[in-house]
């Protein structure tokens, strides 16, 4: 996904599109009974009623999966694969207790998220190297391990690759993957379930060998769940168990995240994943084509890779749209077909967002120069312009804090963090600042 959205919001919008496409009878039979359970960067788990599962799953595979992917691309601006799971059967009248409390499944790993299928490039090679080291000796090196970066860059893939690798070398290991939202929901349900359920929750999460938690920024401002994870974290690390997490930013940048949590995270190692460069994007597309048994000329792959430089999810989503046209619309694998898809997605419109473009637009707005933004001058207007440019670079690109600092005259990451926090606070309290930032963003993206 490249657009923040909850599983309920995504599913409700997709349901509306299905209703318009297939009509009320098919909708009530094959769409309405499904319940969204978990949403990650690349997939959504939909629960299917057990007594209708065979018919629904067969029809989804034949008729609805591809439509879902296309709808998800329009709504969430990224490739999301639907995965159907048959519901566990429990009597509907059974009260919620510690005995029938159901948690997120213990080892909910995507078997496709392996090291072999992870394309390594300049933007992720360090994170990949650490991940391989963790998989070989979990709990002893780099514990905890936090992978951070923008949406759709492969954080979940790399994290789950560790779990999949370790499960093969140590089949008896208990490995648990959960999103931060899953952890919160399980914790909340355990509190609701009454006596004994909290103990069951603790046993579920504190007796694993490898705990994988996705998107910890979701806990921002949620004090009780942070407290629970703090205790879980301490139990696991004291017993030599490995914790791996992902986030869209460094823990110190997450608003209202307890300082004692961030200090625990800093005891391990944090590694960022950046946007893939052009050769890496081409390699990703080649890998997708080979996996799906397609032969696509290099010039076509290079065209798509050159236009899609935001993140891997968008790149994969565009490729799957391209593949759909090849397979289902009998289109040839040519540059013309690729151009048509890119045009449909509005990929060819707008400007390429780079640090240099952001610097130029902000410098022009404040009647400064790019050299001024990089200078050591502390003039008030110039400092404001510099802070705005750093803020926009942080929000509009996937550049890391150190890289942004280097682009602004060799400043350190703490200076960039201070600048972005200051502008964020001002935008939240001052409507004019918010309007100014929106106008600059529009200028950077669209030239207007």
UniProtKB/TrEMBL annotation:
Residues 1-93 are annotated as: Domain I, interacts with DnaA modulators. PROSITE patterns: DNAA (PS01008). Residues 354-423 form the Chromosomal replication initiator DnaA C-terminal domain. InterPro entries: AAA+_ATPase, Chromosome_initiator_DnaA, Chromosome_initiator_DnaA-like, Chromosome_initiator_DnaA_CS, DnaA_C, DnaA_dom, DnaA_N_dom, DnaA_N_sf. One of its GO terms (biological process) is DNA replication initiation. CDD domains: AAA, Bac_DnaA_C. Pfam families: Bac_DnaA, Bac_DnaA_C, DnaA_N. ATP binds at residues 152, 154-156. It comes from the Bacteria. GO terms for cellular component: cytoplasm; plasma membrane. Plays an essential role in the initiation and regulation of chromosomal replication. ATP-DnaA binds to the origin of replication (oriC) to initiate formation of the DNA replication initiation complex once per cell cycle. Binds the DnaA box (a 9 base pair repeat at the origin) and separates the double-stranded (ds)DNA. Forms a right-handed helical filament on oriC DNA; dsDNA binds to the exterior of the filament while single-stranded (ss)DNA is stabiized in the filament's interior. PANTHER family: CHROMOSOMAL REPLICATION INITIATOR PROTEIN DNAA (PTHR30050:SF2). Domain I is involved in oligomerization and binding regulators, domain II is flexibile and of varying length in different bacteria, domain III forms the AAA+ region, while domain IV binds dsDNA. This is Chromosomal replication initiator protein DnaA. It comes from Leuconostoc citreum (strain KM20).
């Amino acid at each position: 996904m490249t657009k923040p959205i909850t599983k309920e919001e995504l599913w409700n919008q997709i349901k509306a599109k299905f209703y318009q496409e297939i009509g009320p009878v098919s909708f009530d039979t094959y769409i309405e009974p499904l319940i969204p359970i978990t949403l990650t960067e690349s997939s959504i788990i939909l629960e299917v009623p057990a007594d209708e599962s065979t018919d629904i799953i067969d029809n989804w595979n034949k008729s609805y999966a591809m439509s879902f992917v296309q709808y998800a691309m329009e709504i969430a601006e990224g490739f999301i694969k639907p995965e159907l799971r048959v519901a566990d059967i429990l009597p509907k009248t059974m009260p919620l207790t510690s005995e029938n409390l159901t948690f997120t499944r213990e080892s909910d790993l995507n078997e496709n998220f392996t090291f072999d299928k992870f394309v390594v490039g300049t933007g992720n090679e360090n994170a990949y190297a650490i991940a391989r080291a963790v998989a070989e000796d979990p709990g002893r090196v780099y514990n905890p391990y936090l992978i951070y970066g923008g949406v759709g860059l492969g954080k979940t893939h790399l994290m789950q690759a560790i779990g999949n690798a370790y499960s093969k070398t140590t089949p008896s290991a208990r490995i648990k993957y959960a999103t931060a939202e899953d952890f919160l929901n399980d914790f909340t349900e355990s509190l609701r379930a009454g006596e004994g359920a909290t103990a069951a929750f603790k046993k579920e999460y504190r007796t694993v060998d490898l705990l994988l938690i996705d998107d910890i920024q979701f806990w921002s401002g949620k004090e009780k769940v942070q407290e629970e994870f703090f205790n879980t974290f301490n139990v696991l690390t004291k017993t030599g168990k490995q914790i791996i997490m992902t986030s869209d930013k460094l823990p110190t940048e997450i608003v209202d995240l307890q300082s004692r949590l961030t200090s625990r995270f800093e005891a391990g190692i944090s590694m960022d994943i950046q946007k893939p460069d052009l050769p890496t994007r081409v390699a990703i597309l080649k890998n997708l084509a080979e996996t799906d048994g397609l032969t696509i000329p290099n010039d076509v792959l290079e065209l798509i890779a050159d236009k899609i430089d935001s993140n891997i999810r968008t790149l994969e989503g565009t490729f799957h749209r391209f593949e759909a046209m090849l397979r289902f619309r009998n289109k040839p694998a040519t540059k013309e077909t690729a151009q048509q898809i890119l045009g449909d997605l509005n990929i060819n419109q707008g400007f390429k967002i780079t640090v240099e473009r952001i610097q130029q637009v902000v410098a022009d707005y404040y009647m400064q120069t790019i050299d001024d933004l990089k200078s050591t001058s502390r003039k008030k207007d110039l400092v404001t312009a510099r802070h705005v440019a750093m803020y926009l670079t942080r929000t509009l690109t996937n550049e890391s804090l150190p890289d942004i600092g280097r682009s602004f005259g060799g400043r350190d990451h703490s200076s960039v963090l201070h600048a972005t926090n200051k502008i964020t606070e001002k935008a939240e309290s001052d409507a004019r600042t918010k309007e100014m930032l929106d106008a600059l963003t529009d200028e950077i993206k669209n030239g207007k």
